[in-house]
Amino acid sequence: MFGFKKSKFYFWNNRIACWGFFLVRIVVIPIAWYHFYLHSTEFYMFTENIYYYAATIIMLILSDWQNINWFSRLYASCYTPKRIKTN
């Protein structure tokens, strides 16, 4: 938009955003699932309904899939070579 895509600041900002997203969203996924596993009986007793419990698991899976999808797109935009238009 302003011609900054070829600047070093844009380059490093893009890399830092990519790895920051990875550390905050992707690395946390196994830790969150382990925590859910440890407290799954407590959570089930709190909801007292198998449908709420199943809905929670489905929402966790969908949010993990969404984060992985976002990261794959962000990573592709950071580390794939840009195509140059030739006329």
Key terms:
mainly alpha, transmembrane helix, 87 residues, membrane, 78% helix
Largest beta-sheet characterization: none
Secondary-structure element series: HHHH
What is the average of the pLDDT values?
87
Shape: elongated
Number of E strands: 0
Which band does the percent of strand residues land in? under 5%
Any idea what the radius of gyration is? 19 Å
How would you describe the overall organization of this protein?
With 87 residues, this protein is mainly alpha-helical. The protein has a domain at 29-78. The chain has helices spanning 8-26, 28-38, 40-47, 50-79. The longest helix is centred in the last third of the chain and has 30 residues, at 50-79. The two termini are 22 Å apart. The relative contact order is 0.12. The mean pLDDT is 87. Keywords: Membrane, Transmembrane, Transmembrane helix.
Quick recap of the structure?
The protein is mainly alpha-helical and 87 residues long. The protein has four helices and no strands.
Set down the secondary structure blueprint.
Layout: H1 8-26, H2 28-38, H3 40-47, H4 50-79
